[in-house]
Specification:
The structure is a single chain. The protein is an alpha/beta fold. Helices cover 30% and strands 25% of the residues. Helix 1 runs parallel beside helix 8, helix 3 packs antiparallel against helix 4 and helix 3 crosses helix 6. It is globular and about 70 Å long. The protein starts with a strand and ends in an 18-residue tail after the last helix. Keywords: FAD, Flavoprotein, Oxidoreductase. Pfam families: Pyr_redox_2, Pyr_redox_dim. Its cofactor is FAD.
Amino acid sequence: MKQLNVDVAVIGGGTAGLGAYRAAKSHTNSVVMIEGSVYGTTCARVGCMPSKLLIAAAESVHQIEKAPGFGVYPQGETKINGREVMDRVKRERDRFVGFVLESVDEIPAQDKISGYAKFVDDNTLVIDEHTKINAKRVVIATGSRPAYPAVWNELGDKLIVNDDVFDWDDLPSSVAVFGPGVIGLELGQALHRLGVDVKVFGLGGQIGPLTDPEVMSYAEKSFQDELYLDANVNVESMKRIESSEGDKVEIQFINHQGDLDTFVVDYVLAATGRRPNTDKLDIENTSVELDNKGVPVAEPYTMQTSVEHIFIAGDASNQIPLLHEAADQGKIAGDNAGRFPDIRAGLRRSTISAVFTDPQIAMVGESYRQLTDRLGDCGCFATGEVSFENQGRSRVMLRNKGILHVYAEQGTGRFLGAEMIGPDAEHLAHLLAWAHQSKMTVSEMLDMPFYHPVIEEGVRTALRDVNAKLHLGPEMIKHCLDCGPGC
């Protein structure tokens, strides 16, 4: 077995791992990156980018369907060529992956080790029984994988995860999506708009990442107006069957009317969450403290675990599983592993997340649940609201669905966070995230310029509402004249 002694070993070559490797290399040349699968990052291969390509195709169909609302009538039947849709998805996906691979190719060959790493102790790793590494410091950046009930494996190749969708050569005729979270909502709606017969099922009533009851309720109704969604379904049975059209999956469930219903589908898409890959590291051989799910606990500003020379970053951690978070965490973990023992706190940005459905969902700063958990029922924060149903610019574009809640602190007026579903929520969330990171008050945010007519005027309406509830500004005026007509 080959023996190596290194300053830093980075386990994983995804977004967090690549960031950690580069950051550590700025302090020492003795760094290796261990990758057991293919390079290319979850985002580029099976996550952010291919899903947005599928969503973009679905949006183009939806725009045609909306055209009669403007008095515009496309001639003839809209034809969706599933093979061409998936061909573009895969071609562009491969292009994005290629950019990542180009950066990986620039890494010296001696710094890249292929295989799956397992801990022997706090400083020793074995890679596929071909290499033994003694590392002074370790960064765990092993990412995550889809998680679903083990009994579903009985469905065989009729059970798929989001990774599998982007290898399709053609669109199927029917799919049951289990899990109305980020992945389930995005893919479910996109497939529905591309002509696939889709039903979305969930348990517990959760919709996306939302925690504000009013915003979540609005989101549920909005999606139910377009496609079948039951966020708390009662499934009686789910089994693989043979039919004249080939193997299918038969799902028997209680529908919205309380009746037993049957849905026969080509595939069951499991979008029921992801689990960190740390369970495959033999991490029990280390002294690292784990949470109740078996995931290493890390200090969020240094990414240091309970073992001072072991760091963790990205989806492998018990923190937010988003690309920009993985990149930040990887840089922090790698920097501290490289400069150890001179540990430094890294920049942690305000929380921001988006779901690319239509309407879009977004969250910024502290969520409603976090605020109520932290502040309880003391009335220490107020909620401002705006509906996009009568918001001027939104109505002009026939995109007037949605609601925005902004949260602010009593006394100081500081902006604390927001949850929303609505048009261009991805852009509104960025404005609010910048304000949150700058620790702005609602009054300071209202001093910023707002053009007319734009969707952002809805943000101003919500801010004015919360400012009035904080008793820091005047009561809301219906059809405020300085907003122009329709605001």
